[in-house]
Write a structure and sequence with these properties.
Shape: elongated
Distance between the termini: 11 Å
Strand order of the largest sheet: 3-2-1-4-5-6-7
Strand content: 15-25%
Radius of gyration: 21 Å
Amino acid sequence: MINIFHIVSNKIWSGPEQYAYDLMLKLKDRDDYYVEMVCGKSDAVLSRFRPLEIPLSILPLKGITDLDSPKRFKRLLKRGQCIIHVHSFGDAVTAILAKHMSSNSKNVRIVLSLHGVERPRLNMASKMVYRELDRVVFASQKAYDSFMPRIKKFDAEKAVIIRDSVLKAHIDTSAPSLREQLGIAPEKALIMYHGRLSHEKGVDTLIKALSQIDRSTYHLVLVGEGHHKFMAKIKGFIVANQMLGNVSFLGFSPCVQSLVNQCDFGVLPSIVPEALGLSNLEYMMHAKAHIATNNGAQLEYLTHGENALLVDPDNQFQLADAIQRLITDTTLRNTIAQQAKKDHDDHLGYDPFYTKITEMYKTLF
């Protein structure tokens, strides 16, 4: 049996948490794995992991200067083959320290999944951290190419590309209709964004783009949370541009795929390059057209005009044109949606990702 410990220290629910959640859900009933979550003190995250009914350890996880967390974490590594799967550089430091404090260190392996398009840290201490890792998992070729050519003396055999995916959730058909709940007229296009609400994700660009479009033709639903200063800024823009009746903030939702299933199309206008984009895959799996930006790994699985519409990042005018096309051209919207569904099912489903991850786990011993 292999003991798998996932460490997630974010205070809000985002891509890394969903990644770990889906893996734990798949692994927890297998006889050849023991699984446990290690989280920080965040009710938003803990409330999502608790229903998994797996062991859950709560540690401070306050970053690289936090010595209490590895001291407490080492107690979980007492026996057997252990894999610590982390999702940030700071949590990798915690894992490394816990491993070296453990009497079972020779049987402990550390995996770092990088969920962004990022460059390696190149100071001496960071290089020492990278050398301690047993695998670095990249979600796409884009993420790999951003990182690997810039780091010297790193064992390339430790780097693997395993394209992310997301489990299809049960759709509760008895859930309230968004159109009924929000009073959205049938003739209006129901547009959806889900994810972190931030400038980096292009949410303000999306609001600006919609301000150029006839308000009688659409209603936007925003699913997710953001920093209070950013939220105040975009809400101020919405009020100033008389868009209050066209935009709804739903906050975090544990059943986001049920909401995706109700929309007419999605918009994911990220300004920063995406390492993959789990939200993109959720529109595709539910046969929904969506608009994305063309600056990240989206180009590895999206083709403009075929399974999505692609626009330049932070370009409100291109984005407005793309949104207008999907509002008015329902034939195009449906054609894109069906091709997106086919491409997802043929190439982007969860099973190939899960197989590669579990095979990678086994190669560590």
